[in-house]
Amino acid sequence: MENLLMAIVALLVERDGMSDSQIAKKLGIGMSQLNRALAVLCSNAELGGLDFVATRQEGKRRTLWLTAKGHELCRS
User: Fold this and answer.
1) How far is C-alpha 48 from the chain's CA centre?
2) Triad 30, 19, 46: Cα angle to 5°
């Protein structure tokens, strides 16, 4: 799971704002696997998550964006 989390973050470093379906396709995973990973990446630390990624609903598309904490992780 850790490798998947880092792969998602790495894709967003390359191109912030990708859709969830674009990321799933690039990584060759299903949406359910992506959603489980996003539950860890997006959730607030108080809920046991990492708070590295935020989602935005743009019409029918859900896009993913690095949070300030996610950008900080990538700089270190």
Assistant:
1) 15
2) 80
Domain boundaries, the chain: 2-75
Question: Which tokens sit at 69?
Answer: 């904490």
Q: Give the chain as a DSSP string.
A: -HHHHHHHHHHHHHSTT-BHHHHHHHHT--HHHHHHHHHHHHS-GGGT----EEEEEETTEEEEEE-HHHHHHHH-
Is domain 2-75 annotated with CATH 1.10.10.10? yes
pLDDT in tens, 6-28: 999 999 999 999 999 999 999 99
Q: What is the pTM of this model?
A: 0.90
